[in-house]
Each structure stands twice: as C-alpha cells, then as structure tokens.
Design brief:
Strand content: 25-35%
Distance between the termini: 45 Å
Radius of gyration: 24 Å
Helix content: 40-55%
CATH architecture of the largest domain: 3-Layer(aba) Sandwich
CATH topology of the largest domain: D-Maltodextrin-Binding Protein, domain 2
Largest sheet: 5 strands, mixed
Order of helices and strands: HHHEEHEHEEEEHEEEEHEHEEEH
Number of strands: 15
Number of helices: 9
Shape: elongated
Structural class: alpha/beta
Number of domains: 3
CATH class of the largest domain: Alpha Beta
C-alpha cells in the first residue's frame, strides 16, 4: 500500500483540507489530490468527501484512518530503528506551548535545537487556548498544570514554582498582606474567569475568593498590569526572575498558606512510538529547565 497516499489521508483528516495536508507534507495541492485519488483507487472506495468549501471523511475513510496512522507510525519506527543515534532529528516538529512560556523559554531552545539538527524544521504554536493536539497534528505540547487523567502520554520536565508578587509602590500604598485572609483587602489580578485562588495549609486545600479591577485572558496581561503597580498577581518564577532581581517586583509570603505546586509537562499523543525529533527536543528542553 502506498504510504504517500496514507500520509495525505492522515494529514488531510487533521488539517481539514487537502491544501492544509499539502502544506504539512511539503508538496503541492495537486500532488496531494493525486495521491489521495490513487489511494482511493487502490482501496476501491471513496475515503473523503470533497467540496469546494469542506472536506470530511466518509464512513470508509473513518474506518481506514486508524490503520493508516498505525502504518505510518510503524514506518517511522522502522526508519528510526536503523538510523544512527548520532544522526540527530529530522522532519517537521510541531510544538505548542502557552504564549509567555513559549516566548521566554521555548523559543531559545528551539533556536539551539534547529542549529544542532539542521535536518529538522519546527512549527511552533504559541497560544493560551486549549489545543486538540491529536486533531491538529501536534507532536508535542508543553503544559504548566496539574494534569487530569488522559489518554495522552505525559512526562514531567521540571517544577514550576509560583508566588504572589506586587510592586514596592503598590505595597507602600496598600500594605503587605501577612495572611491569606488579608487578600480580601487587596486588588488581586486574575486570569479571566478565575474567582478563587488555591492555597495549601497543613496539607489541606483552601480556596479563597479574590477580586480586583482587572482580568485578562493572558498571563502576560496580568504580569504587565502587576508591574504597573495595580495589584497582586500569581506569577511563575521564570516569568519575573529579572524583575525580582531588579527590585521591580517583590515576592509575598503568607503565614498560613502556600500556593499549590504545578509542574512543566511534555505531552505527546502516543506511547507506541516516540519519533527521535520529539525525544531529542524533549531532552533538550528538560536540560534547559534544570
């Protein structure tokens, strides 16, 4: 069976169009159309319903898709098994991460990784929105979170220490909170939709309602307003290290509660085969986070 046609089927199902599949595979849309047509001829069935505006799998295509994915994974595994370990990574690596973490920590690692592996190319998606990594064909997602049960495969890369921060000017004007309850008297800067902050005290979780005059859908917005002296924010240490060293922000320590701990995770869709490009990039990022 023609693996090139199978690759078009898989990529088109993920991208939602033959043009998107062609871009991912580095071929022309005409070539993608021809390869899919040849696959359909070989199978004796239409696998995709195509119109001028949309593309969708037929029932036969739905049945074929998991087998196509497995065959392509097995082919990649076979190539990797005979590829010298010194050969490095190759192919297109698709990575997603939150905007702030990506710009500050992922981009420098990507730059070094591409220099060390000249046969690899990278598509980096920086977004604070939830991403369907399977549906969008993402090889690796970097997340800072408490992970829920999932069919995805996750590896812990590093701790992600967080703290409450405020500017010296804000604290001089509004006072320094000493206990969790004191936060009720302060302007708390939150992500949109967040109404409570979670603290751990004596091994128990404590949720505290907070309020303020500003919210944002991005942690970068919260960070910038905090730096402007408009309130207290929960921020990650990597995000404000330079500002703390310069005295622009002050970490706050409460006597009766600490923020719950989060970690940096590398998440990929399957444990059956981890391509060298994913394995090597994950290792490079883990080293950078130490």
């Amino acid at each position: 069976m023609d693996l090139a046609g199978l690759a078009v089927l898989v990529e088109a199902a993920q991208a939602g169009s033959l043009a998107g599949a062609a871009r991912r595979l580095g071929i022309s849309p005409l070539m993608a159309t021809r390869r899919l047509a040849a696959l359909e001829d070989a199978m004796g069935a239409r696998l995709m319903q195509r119109t001028t505006r949309s593309l969708a799998l037929t029932p036969e295509g739905e049945a074929m898709l998991p087998f196509a994915q497995a065959m392509l994974e097995n082919e990649a595994a076979a190539r990797a098994s005979v590829r010298p370990s010194s050969a490095g990574a190759s192919g297109l690596l698709r990575v997603t991460a939150s905007a702030a973490f990506g710009r500050k920590l992922i981009v420098p690692v990507v730059s070094e990784f591409m220099t060390d592996n000249p046969q690899v190319s990278v598509d980096l998606l920086l977004t604070d929105a939830l991403v369907d990594i399977v549906g969008q064909g993402i090889d690796l997602a970097i997340r800072i979170a408490t992970l829920r049960d999932s069919t995805l495969v996750a590896m812990r890369l590093a701790a992600n220490p967080r703290a409450l921060y405020a500017t010296p000017g804000y604290l001089a004007a509004h006072g320094v909170p000493a206990a969790v309850a004191d936060l009720a008297e302060h302007h708390c800067l939150c992500l949109s939709g967040v109404t409570h902050w979670r603290f751990i005290a004596d091994g128990r979780e404590r949720r505290v309602r907070v309020q303020g005059r500003f919210t944002a859908n991005s942690i970068e917005g919260v960070r910038d307003v905090c730096l402007a002296g408009l309130g207290i924010a929960i921020l990650s240490g990597w995000d404000v290290r330079e500002e703390v060293e310069a005295g622009a922000l002050v970490p706050l320590h409460l006597s009766d509660g600490a923020l719950d701990e989060l970690a940096v995770w590398a998440i990929h869709p399957s444990s059956r085969f981890v391509p060298p490009k994913v394995r090597l990039f994950t290792a490079a990022l883990a080293r950078a986070l130490r």
